[in-house]
Every structure is written in structure tokens, then in C-alpha cells.
Amino acid sequence: MADRMPSSNVPPLRRLAIVGASARAAAYSAIRAGYEVVICDLFADADLRVLGVEVSEADDYPNDFLGWLVEQSCDGWLYTGGLENFPALVDRMASCKKLLGNTGDQLSKARSPTALAKLFPKNFPPTLATSRGLPTDGSWLAKSYCGAGGSGVRVHTDSGSTQAPFYQKRIDGKQSSATFVANGKQATLLGVTEQLIGEPWTGADEFQYCGSITGLELSSSTLQLVERIGQTLAMEFGLQGIFGIDFILEDEQIWLLEVNPRWPASLELLEQAGQFSGIALHVAACWEEELPGESFLFPSEEILGKAILFTPSDICISKKFTSDCLTNRGTIEVPQIADIPNFGTIIPAGRPVCTVFATGENWAEVRGDLQGKIKRPFEGISTASQLNG
User: Fold this and answer.
1) What does the alpha-carbon distance between residue 20 and residue 28 come to, in Å, rounded to a whole number?
2) Percent of the chain having pLDDT more than 90?
3) For site-directed labelling of 278, which of 23, 113, 272, 380 has its Cα 20 to 30 A away?
4) In this structure, are residues 49 and 23 in contact, taking their beta carbons and an 8 Å threshold?
5) How far is CA 67 from CA 19, 55, 160, in A?
């Protein structure tokens, strides 16, 4: 592990501020690396509170982040999922505290389907700005520029429906992701995972991200293409720090769906599988422009997975539910349950409840274990109507 980590002097940062829809995974990485952290996100989860972490809940997301950051004493800050859709806010926040990550301009470029289509004409699905003349047989998707985790995606089935920002040919294949660390000029591939999208047993919507599993096997030529895509993105857009891409694997063909120029959801699995520190790599790349000396790709003895539970109806979290989850949460090195809501929290239908983890010898075993584990958290949850009644 040590040989693959950055070799130059690590910047003397002690206290990091982390913001985003959910900051828990990045916070775990920072705590494992010895940083002090302060957090502001949508949930202020119980598993962060019990660690003694200073965590705040953003009541007005994402507008609360700027005022919150101004008041923090920190050596630098980074953002996780969701904030890539607010480049102007990122720049305003970067003007008051040291940003460890990509600027608003970098976000806008990397998130542009037009830019990606020009950059990867053979690996980007056919994309149009209008639905005029498109078939309504489900072969095209309507997408938003501001989606996250699969939100803002729907099947284009009605030519008279509200115009979407853009339309993309639907591609069948294996939903996948790759994670890189970049220094603005080059990128190192940290790992690839298979994504769980719209799995009914998680309660997720059709296109909603609901988990990841490691151990995705790619041919050498496909793996080289993934690496070239990451290198090209780093050079063309000047990406810095940890970033991810989502793609569909159709036989040996890669179809790039989007770039996530921030902390990806699958990174915590890759950290555990590869025994490296994502936050250490991120800070070194952003502060010193230093990348690891060699690739982190190697066969893992275990397959790791995570799955997110979504509630199909409005629920209220009981004290027993929170207590049981905290008791069985595992450790920050090897979590079993995470993103644990505080008791008394009302969670609207369709929103995430918690995350479960599993390990096994193969993909099917891990998926089956996740499916079994995700049923248990519903015990001890009352519906909001029962609570109010």
C-alpha cells in the first residue's frame, strides 16, 4: 500500500470541511486518515454523530452551504455528490475557503453532454437537443443536466410531454463505473465496479442508483479504453482530485454516460478492496498535483458490495431502529450498516433510508447477501400516519 501512495510531503492539513447531499463516506475516509472533519449535508446521520463528528443538517439545500462554510475553521473543503450541479455555488464557496476539487468551470465542461459527445464520438450514445421525430417506443431517454444518482432520467414515451434538456439513445448492457484520481494533467485509474440501478428489492426507481459491487472483469483492451477516457478527461477539462465516470458495457463496447467530477459513491468499496486512502490521494492530487506511483488495479480476494434502501412510503424512524442499526453498524474500516437516520426522522417516500454492505467470493453471493440484509432494516419502522394517529 505505502509504495502506491503519493511519496511527497503530505500537506499539513488537519481539519477538512465536507459538504454534499451525503458526506458520510468521504468523512469516514478522512477520519481513517487522521483528519478532523466538520460536515454539512442533508442528513446529519446518527453514525457520524456517535463518532463525535461535528455535523450540521442543511435545511435549505444547497444554499445553506455557503454561510455554513464561511463560519468554519478549516484548512480546506471538498464536496460530494449533488454539488456538481451547482457550479456557481462551488465557485462562491471556493472564494472564501481553499477548495480541494474541481471549480465551477471544470464542472460545467465535464458535465456537458455536448462536450462529451465531441470528445468521445465513438463512445457516447446518440444525443439530441429535441424530441422532434423521435420514436416513443421506449428506445430513447429524456435526461436533465442536473441529475444525480439517476434522478432526472425518464423514458421518452410521449411526444407531447414537457420538453427535456436533452434526449439520449437507450443502450442495453452492464451498468458500470470507474474511479480515477487526477492532477489536472493526468489521471490514475483506481478501480471499476458494477452498478446496481433500479433494483426493485431496494425500493429504487427505474433509473436510480442503489448500490455497487466490485470485481467487474474487463478485457485488457476494454480496460485500456477506460484508462484512456480518464486520461483524456483529466487533460481536456483539467480535472483535479477524485472523480468518476458512469458507463454501459455492451460486450466490448463502452458507452460513456456521464462524468462525476467529485467523490463517487463506489469509492468506499474500492478503498476497502485496495487498502488505500481515497482522501489522501485526493488531497495530494489537489494540493501537490501528485498522483500515486502505480495503478491500484489488482485481483481482490473478496468481492465487496453496498446497497441503498429506499422507502416506498412515508416513514418515521423509531428509536429502536436507530439503536439496532448503530449496534450492528460495524466499524468505519469495515462498515456493515451506514447512513443511519436519527430516530424521529420523517423520511418521505422514495428517499434513502440507509446503506448495507456485504462481502463474498463472487458477484452472485454478494448480491444475494445484500438483498437479504436490506430487508431487515424495515423492522422497527413506523409509518408517518401511524405516528401521527
Assistant:
1) 14
2) 74
3) 113
4) no
5) 12, 15, 42
Question: What are residue 192's phi and psi, to 5 degrees?
Answer: -130, 150
374 touches 356 (CB < 8 A):
yes
Closest to 311 in 3D by CA, of 239, 225, 204: 204
Distance separating alpha carbons of residues 27 and 15, to the nearest angstrom? 11
250's grid cell: 455492451
Residue 133: per-residue pLDDT: 74
Q: Are 169 and 155 in contact (CB under 8 A)?
A: no
Q: Nearest-CA neighbor of 357 among 329, 381, 385, 380? A: 329
Q: Residue 38 and residue 53: Cα distance in Å, rounded?
A: 7
Q: How many CB atoms lie within 10 A of CB 100?
A: 25
pTM exceeding the 0.85 threshold for the entire prediction:
yes
Q: Kind and range of the H or E element at 187?
A: strand 187-197
pLDDT of 389 strictly over 50 = no
Residue pLDDT, tens place only, 18-61 = 999 999 999 999 999 999 999 999 999 999 999 999 999 999 99
Beta strands in 214-296 (DSSP E): 240-250, 253-260
Q: What single-letter amino acid sits at 180?
A: F
Residue 47 contacts residue 326 (beta carbons within 8 Å) = yes
Interstrand relation of 166-169 and 174-183 (parallel, antiparallel or unpaired): unpaired
Comparing CA positions, the residue from 54, 63, 50, 308 lying closest to residue 195 is: 308
CB atoms within 10 A of CB 383: 13
Is the backbone of residue 168 left (phi > 0), alpha (psi -120 to 50) or beta?
beta
Q: Could you say which DSSP state residue 195 is in? A: E
3-class SS of residue 191: strand
Which phi-psi region, left, alpha or beta, contains residue 203 (left: φ > 0; alpha: ψ -120 to 50)?
left
- How far from 82 is each of 184, 231, 309, 313, CA to CA, in Å? 22, 23, 18, 23
Please compute the mean of the pLDDT values over residues 209-233 and round it to a whole number: 96
* Better-scored residue on pLDDT, 383 or 343: 343
Handedness of CA 167, 238, 69, 75 (dihedral sign): positive
Q: What is the 3-state secondary structure (H, E, C) of 293-325?
A: CCCCCCCCCCEEEEEEEECCCCEEECHHHHHHH
Per-residue pLDDT tens digits for 334-370? 999 999 999 999 999 999 999 999 999 999 999 999 9
CA 22 to chain centre: 9
